[in-house]
Amino acid sequence: MFGKVVCATRIRPRARPSTHPRSEGSRMSDHRLSSVCLVGDRFAAFASHDNVRTVSQLVAEVGAGAYDTLSGPLLVWEGQGVTDYEREYVRGALDARGLGDKLLMQPNDPDPVPRAQVHKHREVNVLLSGLCELSPGRYHAALRLHSDNELLLDHQSGEHVQGMVVVEAFRQMFIACCERFTASRQPSRRYYYIWHGMDIRFERFVFPLDADIDCTVTDSRTDDPSRLAMTVDLELRQTGHRCAVARIDFTAHDAERISAKEHVIAARAVTTVLGGAGHEPLASVVSAG
Fold first, then answer.
1. Where is the A-factor biosynthesis hotdog domain (predicted)?
2. pTM, whole model, 2 decimals?
């Protein structure tokens, strides 16, 4: 990741004035770098800001000649939701206008945490990248948002990232940390994760820009390799501010043992439902016949 996004100047005049501190020089200058923060189309509401564009907006502006007179370089600093496919779309649009040599792209496309560690089947649903150990029991990762993430498909309200995305990022974080740094000591075992409790607090909006997640193990009971119990504190930070915190209690159980137990409990639940509510509807059907 490249740290927090700083948008230096306006790209073109708009109806409302620039909010950048250098308002007296808000129009494009031949002697100053022009920059734009680029986000995926899913975050169109966030692109209401002067120096933010979605992929489709930027390509449309380039195609309309909005940047043809730009004599200096154009820095495109990526936020969240931009893929390689869309990145090439932007480059192609600039090349078609003869502006390719003026593009300075700051890509934000880190490798996702592997499937086996986050327990997600599709790459678009992985919310973490760059997982690492800072010190024993302290871990760090970056937030990674794909525009087609399962939690963004139904709707995206307002400019901020929905709270359920943060909850899922925290879930992936504690599982990935346990898988990579603890469960990996038992390579012959496969683990099934059970939550016991979560206390979460949201303190600030999270926007589709760089964000970091820290995980600290506050209690660990891992002497029994078939049952790894932990309590972790998690924190999401963006632009130097704490946005969300959580404490989660969980146990990683040996998958074979817990699956067998789960199957028995599920069978009892089915028996209870059919043995209770099932008789009356069946009697009604027979009587009606």
1. 118-251
2. 0.81
